[in-house]
Amino acid sequence: MEEVSRPVNPPPSDSTETTPDVGWTPIAEEAARAARLLHPKEGELPRPGRRRVLTVANQKGGVGKTTSTVNLAAALAVHGLKTLVVDLDPQGNASTALDVDHRSGTPSIYEVLIGEVTLADAAQPTEQSPNLFCVPATIDLAGAEIELVSMASRESRLKEAISSEILNEIGVDYVFIDCPPSLGLLTVNAMVAAQEVLIPIQCEYYALEGLGQLLSNIELVQQHLNRELHVSTILLTMYDGRTKLADQVTNEVRNHFGDTVLKTVIPRSVKVSEAPGYGQTVLAYDPGSRGAMSYVDAAKEIAERGAKLERGSST
């Protein structure tokens, strides 16, 4: 069922442009939202002072991790920022959502990790936006953790692959690394390669279960492998405004993590769930939906925060 807000009366419009005989309808409102998303009047979002590499991690499954990765990346790309998604999950869900080839034998993150191809060779353009690229995951990645154990510098294979020189060659502003729902060697590689961690947390009863272990692992990586790593962003997902529980979880997370939590929350949305089945992000599948608009708002927050942080750190 479509999740469009339906006020009894039309909102006071910027409708000086509409003719008096055309009334407000939910469909017209959604069409207007879609047009604003696909053709933003404000122009591009601010570029970060330096490239941002974010690992999207939560070992708890079903929290909207991959969904958030691809939709945030797509939202930044739509607003003019060149963005790369690295699919580090053997399930390949991010590759599916971005509709890039990830059949066995395709140059993928697996070949990148074992040193057979470069990241630039494996990166594929997507049809979602000319600014959006993806390094896919194939089924070959499923055995990568076992193979990595015996390799030299096993925790930093991805860091070596995502060098500044390679990323300059691709020319990206943002890199999102989509991790598997575990705290294994692939996730450690992602944390060593990034400066920032983005944690999606669902607004449900077990939201904080296991989060302590994730934070402990991040702290261990900070101490021993990557001193630059920090939790920069927490995104609340699957918010259901009809329940008191959603508000309780939201308040608890905000009280505990403060300004690290984005103001934007991602609502439960049928459209968000349907989009990957069509090989699309929700921004492409239904750009006027609440889910799409929420991810655009979250992406704007991320871009604006990043720009402010960079300006502040340089002074």
From TrEMBL:
Classification via InterPro entries: AAA_dom, DNA_Partitioning_ATPase, P-loop_NTPase
SUPFAM superfamilies in UniProt: P-loop containing nucleoside triphosphate hydrolases
Residue ranges, annotated region (Disordered): 1-25
Superkingdom per UniProt: Bacteria
Domain AAA: 52-230
Name of the molecule in the record: ParA family protein
Organism annotation: Amycolatopsis nalaikhensis
